[in-house]
Amino acid sequence: MVMLWENIKLAFTSLLANKMRALLTMLGIIIGIASVIAIMTVGDSLINYISEEMNSMGANNIMVSVQPRTDEDNMFNNMMAGAMMMDPISEQDKITPEMLEKLGEQYSDEIKAITIYDDPSSGQVTQDKKYANVYVTGINIGYFVSTEVDMIAGSIFSQRDLEEGRPVTIVSSIVVENIFDGDMDKALGSTIEVSVDGRYAEYTIIGVYDYVVQDMSAMMQSRQDITTNMYIPYRTSINQTHNDNFTNFYVVANNGVDSDLLAKKIERFFEGYYRNNEDYQVGAFNMQTMVEMVGSMVGMVTTAISIVAAIALLVGGIGVMNIMLVSITERTREIGTRKALGATNGSIRIQFIVEAIIICLMGGAIGILLGILGGEAAANLLGYPATPSISGIITSLVFSMIIGVFFGYYPANKAAKMNPIDALRYE
Fold it and tell me: Least CB-packed of 61, 70, 75, 298 within 10 Å?
C-alpha cells in the first residue's frame, strides 16, 4: 500500500511538471468518454420520457389505427408507415362508428372503454385584447377513461352533450388564466369564441382541467403563448367537419384482460371489414409493447453511436501510450538511478502503469462531467427531462482504467527492462 501511494505521488509530480502535455494527452480520453456519456444520457432520457408518456395513457390501452397494407409482419414498421402516409385516407377506407359499436358489443366483457377523438385543429380563443392558443379536439366519454385529465372545476361532458353534439367545452387552467385572469367561477358558464382556420365558433365552458407544464419547449414560452387542448364533444366536432369516420382510436382493456391477446382479436375483427381492401388494413398494439419496441430501437441506435464514439477512446489510449514512451525517454537517467539504487523491474513497471492509469482516470472524470452536462443540455433542448446514464458512467470509469493498463503496459515494460548502466550513461 505504501509503495502504491509513493507511485501515485510520483505520477502526480510528473504530470504537474508537464501540465500542458498531460492535458493534451487526456484530451482524447475526455472527448471519447464525454461523447459516450452524452449519447447514452440522451438515449436513456428519451426512453424514459417515451415510457412515462405512454404509461400515462395506461399500460392496458390498445391503439388501433388504419395502416397501409404491406408484406411486413412488423407491427412497429407498419405503424410508422401509416404515420408517414402522404395521401389522405378516403372516407370509405376509414373506420366507421358502426364498426366500433359492433366491436364494443362483441368484446363487451374484455373492453372497458373505447376512446375516439378527431385530429386536433390549432385555434385561438379571443376576448377583447386577450387570447389563448388551443388545440380544438373532439372526444368521447372514453377519453376520460384512457387519459388522465385532472378536473379542477366544473364537470366532464354529459351523455346528452355527447349525443346531441352541444357547443360546450372543457378548457385548461391556462385558458382561464389568460382569458378570465384565473377566475374559475367567472369562466364556468361563460361563452368563448374560437377561431380555427378562419372559421369562428362559440362554446360554453362547462369544465376546467389543470394544465401542468412538462416539456422544455413549453417552459421556455410565456404562459400567454402556451398551446393547450380544448375539448369538445366528438359529435360537435364532426357536425362542423362533416367527417363521421376516423383513422384511429384507443381501446381500454378491463383489469385482468391480456391486452396483447385482445389486440390480436381486434385485428381479426377488422380483417373481416378490410379483407377485400387492397390498400389498407387495421393494426392494433398495446402501449406496453410500444414502449418496449421503442426502447429497443432507441437502445440499438444509442449502442451503435456509442461504439463509434468509443473509437475516440482507443485513439486517446494510443495518445497515452505515445506520450508515455516520450516520458520514459526523457526520464531514462531517472530510471537508471532508481534501478541502480535497487528498484526492481516490477516496481518500475508499476510506477509507469500507475501514471498511465491516473492520466486516463483524470481524463475519464473530466469526460464524465462534460458528458453529463452535454447530455443534459441536449435532452433539455429536445424537450424532455435528462436522465444521466449510471451504467454508462460506471462503464466509462472502468474502461478508463483498462485503457490505462493496456496502453501503459508496453511503455512501462520497456522502462522496466532498461539496462541501468546504459540508462545512467544516456544523454
Answer: 70
Kindly state the cell numbers that stand for 218: 413549453
**CA-to-CA distance for 351 and 413, rounded, in angstroms?**
10
Q: What is the dihedral of CA 224, 225, 231, 234, to 10 degrees?
A: 150
What tens digit of pLDDT does each residue of 245-286 get? Answer: 888 888 888 888 888 888 889 999 999 899 888 888 998 887
The kind and range of the H/E element at 64 are strand 61-68
- Residues 400 and 361 sit within 8 Å (Cβ to Cβ): yes
Q: How far apart are CA 382 and CA 380, in angstroms?
A: 5
Cell numbers of 106, please?
362483441
59-90 per-residue burial string, b: 16 or more CB within 10 A, e: under 16: ebbbbbbbbeeeeeeebbebbebbeeeeeebe
Beta bridge partners of 202: 193
Residue 168 burial (10 A CB sphere; 0-12, 13-18, 19+)? buried
The pTM (predicted TM-score) of the whole model is 0.57
Cβ within 8 Å of residue 22, ≥6 positions away: 15, 16, 359
Distance of CA 163 to the CA centre of its chain: 39
Identify residue 68 by its one-letter amino acid code. Answer: P
The alpha carbon of 8 is separated from its chain's Cα centroid by a whole number of angstroms, namely: 41
Grid coordinates 380563443 are at which residue?
Answer: 125
CA distance 203 to 13: 76
Please give the pLDDT value at position 216.
47
Q: Are 61 and 391 in contact (CB under 8 A)?
A: no
- Report which of 71, 110, 89, 38 is spatially closest to residue 245, judged by C-alpha positions: 89
d(Cα 339, Cα 344) in Å, to the nearest integer?
Answer: 7
